[in-house]
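Hey, resending since the last one bounced:
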Amino acid sequence: MRSVGLAEAKAQLSALLDAVEMGDEVVITRRGQPVARLVREALPLAAEPASSWVERLRRFHHNQAPSTSSAVALVRELRDEE
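The structure tokens again:
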């Protein structure tokens, strides 16, 4: 986490936003006291990196009970229910 004074924040706002975009946090101070924190905005679900989707799928799969039948048998069972 980076801490900058108000005058420096005003002078280097673009650079600070670049740092925040890369995942850094910036605290803006006034007379040495923290008054604001810049953090990266949460990404919308559709904009998540592919690797996070892979990890979420792995976690989902890991929490599922093991299947006792084949995929073909499962499809037949679901079709017969209708």
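The CA atoms of residues 60 and 74 lie 19 Å apart.

Sorry for the duplicate.
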